[in-house]
Amino acid sequence: MNPDIVFSNAVLLTPEEMGQADRLTISGGVPGIELMERAGQAVARAAAKMVPAAARISILCGPGNNGGDGFIAARCLTAAGHTVQIHLLKASETLNGDALEAFVRMGLPHTVVPDGDGIAVSLAGELERADLIIDALFGAGLDRPLAGPGLALVKAVNRSGRRVLAVDLPSGVNGATGADPGAAVRADATVTFFRRKPGHLLNPGRTLCGSVTVADIGIKAGVLEKIGPSVFHNIPELWLGDWPRPDPLGHKYTRGHAVVFGGPMSATGAARLSAGAALRAGAGLVTLASPPDAMMVNACHLTAVMLKKVPGAEAMEELLADRRFNTVLIGPGYGVGEETRAAVAAILKQKRATVLDADALTSFPNHAQELFTLIGDNPAPVLLTPHDGEFARLFPDIEGDKLVRARRAAERSGAVVVLKGPDTVIAAPDGRAAINDNAPPFLATAGSGDVLAGISAGLLAQGVPGFEAACQAVWLHGEAGREAGPGLIAEDLAPALKAAIRALVDKTAGG
Ligand SMILES: NC(=O)C1=CN([C@@H]2O[C@H](COP(=O)(O)OP(=O)(O)OC[C@H]3O[C@@H](n4cnc5c(N)ncnc54)[C@H](O)[C@@H]3O)[C@@H](O)[C@H]2O)[C@@H](O)CC1
Ligand SMILES: Nc1ncnc2c1ncn2[C@@H]1O[C@H](COP(=O)(O)OP(=O)(O)O)[C@@H](O)[C@H]1O
Ligand SMILES: [K+]
């Protein structure tokens, strides 16, 4: 990975790390109120784009700096000719620091939400008539589930059915995990500052944010050197430097040869999907190794993918002795049980780049440590691509949010773990992690995961390092899903991959 990535827009910061960026900037000579001014002005600009001229805007302000951003936005929007109603969750006497300064600078009339578990009918009515509600209740400082008037206000906002702009995060969403313990605001748009947080990408946070924009508030990227971020947004910027560009003087063997081990006659489709995707992802050659009974059906369906008959363990070892097969994929449609465990062990002992998916994961619940030892002894990259169910079987004691679970699993197994779903997390044993957000829900279709495993193998075959190959594969899978669009089935993904790769290569003009 390019070391400059820690300064890039792909960086994600936890609320604590964002606080550190804030403190480093302030100690570097930029007053906190200046950061808050820029943040509040960015919120006002975003709000102005969401409403007509002379609109009615209700701004809900919490007791901390999130509320401070709200006061600045209120001042700017009033100056721009909008009618702004300001509601404080706590009396202004409780404000301090930059938020108090922002309140004083605002100098506009406001009301304080009375204590209790409900809100006044008049406030609920006002929210229902607003052209826009700005949620500046809680952001990075949320440290417990909402309760009392804060909770009542959030519920009223969601009941109002009006457009909502959240400041930094929808109130109630945990910036580090995306969790919404209790309740949270459902926003149409969110303006955050400097860099995104994991909670903007992990569900349910991502859905609650609506569209996210990141405003520059004058924090310099240089502060990131001290913070040392390790969690990233899975965007091309993160891994473009490792994108495998074919050597103009090369040949098919210089692009790698992936072998996919397929299942018996009754379950051949999954491995074929993987093999086709590996070829589309750029592997120079792909061989589908099948048991004898599956040869005919595979032969009837395949053209560019090559076939090899593998009647048993001995034949498998013979095939793997050929070092030109530089990447192995096993699992899709392979079958669950002891034979699969033995096959996986034989593969990992060959110390090749390896992708273990589906049945290759499901075969190990009571033998997980055995698997992790084999992975630890293999210096080549190993990718595990579980969905939540497969993950729970392999790592039954690992709990927590998705980011924490994927990172712990990677650390324990020594593999790159791709924990799949709408917000797939890719985690490396060295602590790096990336969160993906480009996958459309149409990807939840039979065989879609087999395609992802195949793309991963195709990239590993071209020599891409494990973490980067997994990130590239997950992103391309998402792009292929968007390209194929509604109504897609897994067979559509490999052809759509061509357009996704073309768009990527055109963008980088790197060929
Ligand atoms: N770089 C930065 O860190 C910047 C931060 N800014 C704003 O500052 C915000 C963070 O400010 P704060 O750290 O003051 O945090 P918040 O304003 O998000 O909330 C903190 C306050 O809310 C209370 N609180 C937390 N959870 C609660 C709950 N569930 N119920 C009731 N009260 C609760 C806390 O005790 C504290 O008083 C960011 O979200 C952003 O909007 C901006 O002003 C610009 C710069
Ligand atoms: N709601 C969703 N939104 C986006 N992507 C999804 C969603 N649900 C599943 N996916 C993706 O679809 C793929 C499904 O893989 P998997 O569960 O292994 O299915 P299969 O075994 O049928 O191939 C994964 O890459 C996953 O991230
Ligand atoms: K907020």
Automatic annotation (TrEMBL):
It comes from the Bacteria. AMP binds at residues 420-424, 449. It holds the Pfam family Carb_kinase. Residues 18-225 form the YjeF N-terminal domain. Residues 235-504 form the YjeF C-terminal domain. The keyword Transmembrane does not apply. The keyword Repressor does not apply. (6S)-NADPHX binds at residues 65-69, 139-145, 168, 270, 333, 387, 450. This is Bifunctional NAD(P)H-hydrate repair enzyme. It comes from Roseibium marinum. The lineage of its organism: Bacteria, Pseudomonadati, Pseudomonadota, Alphaproteobacteria, Hyphomicrobiales. The gene is nnrD.
